[in-house]
Amino acid sequence: MDPGEAAILESSLSVFYRLFVPLRPLPAALPGRMNVIDHVRDMAAAGLHSNVRLLSSLLLTMSNNNPELFSPSQKYQLLVYHADSLFHDKEYRNAVSKYTMALQQKKALSKTSKVRPSTGNSASAPQSQCLPSEIEVKYKMAECYTMLKQDKDAIAILDGIPSRQRTPKINMMLANLYKKAGQERPSVTSYKEVLRQCPLALDAILGLLSLSVKGAEVASMTMNVIQSVPNLDWLSVWIKAYAFVHTGDNSRAINTICSLEKKSLLRDNVDLLGSLADLYFRAGDNKNSVLKFEQAQMLDPYLIKGMDVYGYLLAREGRLEDVENLGCRLFNISDQHAEPWVVSGCHSFYSKRYSRALYLGAKAIQLNSNSVQALLLKGAALRNMGRVQEAIIHFREAIRLAPCRLDCYEGLIECYLASNSIREAMVMANNVYKTLGANAQTLTLLATVCLEDPVTQEKAKTLLDKALNQRPDYIKAVVKKAELLSREQKYEDGIALLRNALANQSDCVLHRILGDFLVAVNEYQEAMDQYSIALSLDPNDQKSLEGMQKMEKEESPTDATQEEDVDDMEGSGEEGDLEGSDSEAAQWADQEQWFGMQ
């Protein structure tokens, strides 16, 4: 036997004897030699989770059959490494069970170490230093609970960690959990603790701003690092911009972020572009919102954040093929985020497949319960299916998560109006008007409710005039003003309003309403043109289709003259040219009937 084979045989026998032959406690590792626990720890550190799971399971069974085989500290380590491997395999309940057993073992180990006097064994010192952190075990347990949607249990386990021992990631998780539970004060405290330890934790800054902490106060917590670290002069402006975002001051937020984005060092930043796109959307400027989303998407083809809003905007414009392609692309990137499911849900919703939209919205919420767009999608689907009370619950939750987003309030008010709860709708619209300020969007929302009550028609007119003075191109205000003019049969005024609004933009709804107004003043040819433009923008717009079909049924003056000529010929007995044409007449009759059915 050559020396190499002899060395391999000796090593194999050594491992065999150490693992299976001695049914007695493993001796402390001699200097330079590793025991089986060391091998498990090294595999865990190397990321060999499946290997750790198999080996630790076997070793734990051995320990259960012979409790003296491993020391308490060794069994604690085995339980933690085994739980870590279960966590990696997403078996969260099983992992929590093993982590709990590990903590019980650690508690027993602590009691034993207090009672037993020190023997002066130098080998035990390195072993104790290698023990997994009890605080880290509790953090992983909290992670398991959050994955299982058991936030109260996650808070309880993290609350049990003394404040001085909490790491930044523990404080960050606690802050997010407190915020989700509506406990603002402890959430603010935890976010501030994160910033105290890590002053450049930008997500913690956003968390504080979302909880109404003043931007100046937040900026003061980062002042030292801004002054001491070069190239961070933009941070104070960044904080100022997002302070405007969270107070609902969209115009100032847009201006501030634009000033940041124009700086050479921050130009073409995907996060800033995404924030700009979202702000334009909130301000009702859908055209610029779509442009910014497209710009961000070109810079980062794998971008997921914000794509749910982008898909919704495309669906509203009738670009359903683009929405379908976007959904497929996002699913190829990740199906574990809410955004792909919301985008597909928007495609279904605007294809009038409300049951499927409901399912996709529910799936998105399951993946991310904080997804505002998913809640809005599911709420809209429920409303259109006649399940208004369930829809109201979802819109209220969306408002809780995003109190500065007007579309959340619009959905809720639409539910109130659908259930004839005009009083509740009026109270909500007034609250939004007072909370978010008198801008074109809030004025239009309040006017929408006023239009439902004959007593408040004049008030609605005043509100819409104010909205259009602020933003003449605001589509929702134009639509509602046109609706009011239609009731008053002031078609010429309505045509002038719509032509002015369409001078610098093209929108399916505006073209369709203009077509309706032109029909009312007998401008049939131009009305047909407007319906055609509307359908080119949104081929699925049913009302434009109905308008065209109604016009096709109407007899043109030329057709009427021809029919009178035929009647004259029949009356005078001049039938020569018409003999033998029964089959052709039948074909024309069939065609007229077909058009009439469209």
TrEMBL record:
Q: Residues annotated as region Disordered?
A: 546-598
Location in the cell: Cytoplasm, Cytoskeleton, Spindle; Nucleus
- List all Basic and acidic residues biased stretches: 546-556
Biased composition of type Acidic residues is found at 561-582
KW Cytoplasm (keyword) present: yes
Q: Where are the TPR repeats?
A: 372-405, 508-541
Identify one Pfam family in the record: TPR_8
Q: Which UniProt keywords apply?
A: Acetylation, Cell cycle, Cell division, Cytoplasm, Cytoskeleton, Mitosis, Nucleus, Repeat, TPR repeat, Ubl conjugation pathway
Q: Its principal location?
A: cytoplasm
Per the database entry, which stretches of residues form a coiled coil?
none
| An annotated GO BP | positive regulation of mitotic metaphase/anaphase transition
Signal peptide span: none
Q: What does this protein do?
A: Component of the anaphase promoting complex/cyclosome (APC/C), a cell cycle-regulated E3 ubiquitin ligase that controls progression through mitosis and the G1 phase of the cell cycle. The APC/C complex acts by mediating ubiquitination and subsequent degradation of target proteins: it mainly mediates the formation of 'Lys-11'-linked polyubiquitin chains and, to a lower extent, the formation of 'Lys-48'- and 'Lys-63'-linked polyubiquitin chains. The APC/C complex catalyzes assembly of branched 'Lys-11'-/'Lys-48'-linked branched ubiquitin chains on target proteins.
- Which PANTHER family does the entry link to? ANAPHASE-PROMOTING COMPLEX SUBUNIT 7 (PTHR12558:SF36), CELL DIVISION CYCLE 16,23,27 (PTHR12558)
Q: How does it assemble?
A: V-shaped homodimer. The mammalian APC/C is composed at least of 14 distinct subunits ANAPC1, ANAPC2, CDC27/APC3, ANAPC4, ANAPC5, CDC16/APC6, ANAPC7, CDC23/APC8, ANAPC10, ANAPC11, CDC26/APC12, ANAPC13, ANAPC15 and ANAPC16 that assemble into a complex of at least 19 chains with a combined molecular mass of around 1.2 MDa; APC/C interacts with FZR1 and FBXO5.
What is the protein name given in its UniProt record?
A: Anaphase-promoting complex subunit 7
Organism from which the protein derives = Rousettus aegyptiacus
